[in-house]
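Let us work through a complete example step by step.
Step 1: write down the sequence.
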Amino acid sequence: MATHRLGRLVEDWLELENAGIPLEPRKFRVGAKPNNGLMIRQMPTPYDEAKIRELDNYRVAYVMPVFIRRDEPGKTIVRGCTLDVPWDESVEWLEEDEKRNRGWYAFSRDYYPPKHEYPRDMVLNHRMQCSLSRGDIREGFLLAVGRVYPPETYHDGEIIPIRFSILDQWDGHPSVTFQLPLMRNRNRVNQTPRGKRKRKPLFSCPDHIAPVEKGEATDRAKSANEGRRIYARIEK
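Step 2: predict the structure and record it as tokens.
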């Protein structure tokens, strides 16, 4: 009788799961930890790779080494990822450079040193929309690019907190705050923001007045006097 009941229970369980109804205990579904069962941390690297670097044309590179692991029973479905930057809402995840150099992620040809591009197998951008079961990990670089330089209140070498969040199947937002050093662009003083042109001062181009020769000035004076005399006779 017990075996029959257990078999029936398994059938009912599978039927409900196939219908999309979750049956895990609540602590596994929403997570016993603040990050909903995920462990997310900034990964240490042997080189100075983690950074916020200003590029030319007011573009900014965000390089973040991260380690992600599902620690709890159950499953996390990663539906999307976001990066919250204090000064820029236009930050986008970098895409693979398929046209110029397939298999690599590149910010620009001006990004050097230590690297201006990253091999595909080291980058997580194309591997983040996934399903993580207990023990599954993601380890590598997250690369993003923005279009706004940090304000002048942030100094070169300053450590900036940047928040990385995951959107899971329960509308939860497991997250971590990266601590990234800022690398200012030394050429930025010579650049002009997009959509803006340098304007000359209002009085920077005074009207040019041609010099008048002495003889020409005398002729002009005689013509003026003659005109006044003619006008006086007409009035009479």
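Step 3: interpret the result. The mean pLDDT is 78.
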